[in-house]
Amino acid sequence: MERKRNTLAYLLAVLMFGCLGLLLRLISLPSDIVVLSRCILGSLFVLLLMKLRGHRMDKAAIRKNGKWLVISGACMGWNWLLLFAAYRYTTVAIASLCNYVAPILVIFAAAFLFREKLSRIKMLCVAGALAGIVLVSGVIEGAELPPDSPKGILFALLAALGFAAVVLCNRKMSEIDDLDKCVMQLLSATVAVLPFVLYSNWGKPLQPDLQSVLLTVLIGLVFTGGAYCLYFSALGTLPVQSIAILGYLEPVISVLCSVLILREPITALGIIGAVLTVGSAAASELIRE
Asked: Are the beta carbons of 185 and 71 closer than 8 angstroms?
């Protein structure tokens, strides 16, 4: 019963993460302001939850992992800034799939940093994911995409670097509670993105409509704070392979939102590329040699 409940919690978190691109399209505020709001409101949500649960942060564990918490939080903020910007320039499907080449980047980084084996099958996964991104981008068949799509693809690939860095930093952490890790990363992300947001928006008038304000609050409290609490609550009980498989529903949900709800263009080759990208990235985590 507990495993079923945790599986549902994890699926709900993945569903919310996959819908972020859709929600951002309905917000008129600059994407970096949405990111900063997400960091602040998400942090407040987790801190309030910890207060209600009577959870006391393990300061010794936080100090022990302090360097990696700060770096991973900053990289998470970097990932969000670039990914949300990519959503503005290209389709939600393309941005999400480009962001999910992160596991492929982790393969190369782990081989270099941790001397992990780079097998033939892993290399095939790398090649498959890269081929999938080429197909999704539409460059082969000259697909009609947003005019700034190349910029969006570049931002999404750079976002993947931040995503990969977060994964690698999390590997270096040990003996720290998941909620402590979550809130410290969110707070670090807030500090990291704040100077950029202030610089890029200083002196610019903002005229947010009610819908944009409400959706921004929804993203921060529910789709970040709530989603991360659900996500971390399930990590300790679900098998690693289940987490990996279910986690790759996120880009699938993003693609479905892009095609079915936003009616963004995708070609037959793009669909094949989406399957190839998600399948290769998932296989790279599931295959153990």
From this structure: no
Domain residues for 9?
Answer: 2-199+210-286
**Alpha-carbon separation of residue 287 from 120, 123, 130, 238 (angstroms):** 11, 12, 18, 18
How many domains does the chain divide into?
Answer: 1
CA 208/CA 169 separation, integer angstroms: 36
Phi–psi pair at 206, nearest 5 degrees:
-115, 130
> Is residue 205 one of the residues assigned to a domain?
no
Which residues have C-beta within 8 Å of that of residue 142, sequence separation ≥ 6? none
pLDDT tens per residue across span 202-231 = 888 888 899 999 999 999 999 999 999 888
H/E stretch holding 24 reads: helix 20-25
**Unique residue bearing structure tokens 């320039």:** 89
Residues sharing a CB contact under 8 Å with residue 80, sequence separation 6 or more, in sequence order? 35, 38, 39, 159, 189, 193
CA-to-CA distance for 133 and 112, rounded, in angstroms? 24
- Across 131-164, b (16+ Cβ under 10 Å) vs e yields ebbebbbbeeeebebeeebeebbbbbbbbbbbbb
pTM over 0.85: yes
Q: What is the pLDDT of residues 23-66, one digit of tens each?
A: 999 999 999 999 999 999 999 999 999 999 898 999 999 999 99
As a whole number of angstroms, the distance between CA 52 and CA 121 comes to: 47
Would you say residue 33 lies in a domain? yes
Examine residue 6 and state whether it is found in any structural domain, yes or no. Answer: yes
Q: Do 91 and 145 contact (CB within 8 A), yes or no? A: yes
